[in-house]
């Protein structure tokens, strides 16, 4: 069993909303979007990243499945002296 199958085993993806916050490469988003498509679902994935420049690359990886994903920029604040 792959790691993605292990993590998603038993989850009904037919009408799910997922928040994905990974490293920007798009692998996690692609896996989640594929699971939704396989379930013939109406689900959505919102991806969050601190670097909005990664979004076009992720959308290109998703291809026609990109309609399932929404991209949002995370605002990271650092408290410094």
In short:
This protein has three helices and three strands.
What letter string, H or E per element, gives the SSE order?
HEHEHE
Strand tally is: 3
Helix content: 25-40%
Radius of gyration: 14 Å
Query: In whole angstroms, how far apart are the ends?
Result: 47 Å
- Strand line-up of the largest beta sheet: 1-2-3
What does it look like?
With 81 residues, the chain is of the alpha/beta class. The chain has one domain. Helices cover 32% and strands 19% of the residues. The protein contains three helices and three strands. The chain has helices at 3-8, 27-38, 55-62; strands at 17-20, 44-49, 69-73. It has a three-stranded parallel β-sheet with strand order 1-2-3, with helices on one face. Helix 3 links the parallel strand 2 (44-49) and strand 3 (69-73). The longest helix is centred in the middle third of the chain and has 12 residues, at 27-38. It is globular, with a radius of gyration of 14 Å. The relative contact order is 0.21. The mean pLDDT is 80.
Present the secondary structure layout.
Elements (H helix, E strand, L loop, with lengths): L2 H6 L8 E4 L6 H12 L5 E6 L5 H8 L6 E5 L8
Parallel strand pairs: 1-2, 2-3
């Amino acid at each position: 069993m792959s790691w993605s199958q292990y993590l998603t085993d038993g989850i009904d993806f037919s009408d799910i909303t997922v928040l994905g916050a990974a490293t920007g490469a798009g692998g996690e988003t692609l896996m989640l979007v594929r699971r939704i498509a396989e379930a013939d679902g109406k689900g959505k994935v919102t991806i969050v990243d601190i670097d909005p420049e990664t979004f076009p690359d992720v959308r290109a990886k998703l291809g026609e499945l990109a309609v399932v994903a929404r991209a949002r920029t995370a605002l990271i604040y650092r408290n410094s002296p």
